[in-house]
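I am still learning, so can you show me any protein sequence you like together with the matching structure tokens, please?
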Amino acid sequence: MTLAVFFGCTFIAFGPALSLFLFTIARDPLRIIILIAGAFFWLVSLLLSSLIWFIAVKASDPRDEALQRGLLIFGVMFSVLLQEAFRFLYYKLLRKAIEGLVALSEDGCSPISIQQMAYVAGVGFGLMSGAFSMINLLADALGPGTVGIHGDSQLYFLTSAFMTMVLIFLHTFWGILFFHGCENRRWWEIAAVVLMHLAVSGSVSAASRAPCCLQGCCHTSLSHPRPSPGFPHHWNHQEGDTVAAWSSRAVGDPSHPFPFLLFPPPQTFWNPLYVGSLVPSYLLMAAAAVWAYLLSGGSAQNLRRFLLCKCLVKGHRDPSGCWGPSGCRGPSGCWVLGWGKGLLGNEARS
């Protein structure tokens, strides 16, 4: 059963993102490089957030619950802002890269558009964020143990998997919106991305009784079961511990594998409010998806034509003037993946 939970949650969390990678990124070496670089930028932002959190916890009084809660809120906001700052730095780097590609090309055109870079960079941010969100939880899902043995809900792993999936998609859409705002100097679009990021982080943080968010999305505070013999992830946990006392001891525990990634254990394995964070997160994802689709050149007509597509003719222009996969268009005027002319086929519209 634990193996089934592991693979089920893995495919729920990363299956859609893997499909995006295979169909839209894997065949282009330049896109793979951009994706890996985007994941690296997100990882650096996590490292700096973790460092600040570690210093703040060590310098504060662990017995002061109000102070520890304030530091936690500060850590959430600081991590979100730092992630978006690194997204901006990555945009500036990619803008310089486009100028270099144009200078090196024979026809004076870049082999990849800024819209495509935004999409691939967003996928890179999302994949790395999702990996850090689920890696500890998936390790626990393999067992040993029985989910819900203490009368708690058995949906914790499933809820976390769906939350990871929505965060990967959100980072993808945020990347498109953020780059569009930078490219057109629409700073309100950038502000909207930051606010949405804070809202998602806050919704999950509010749903968790003992959240620990260094990544900007607080579902990464992997709640562990009640203390039980043989359970390997309760470093120095003692009966009746407060979060502050446990955190202070865990930071100084050399056996803790990641002292800057604290996972404070709540009283029970399942927080009944945690699943409630899925609804606002998915609503925000839907709004961000529609917004990103429209900014990328999509329209209702494009989407309708894509959904009605029966076949694609590679590199062939049909009587309606539509292109096959080489131009990201198919018969009846549909665009591959329905993303419109701006995101995946901007360079082949003539």
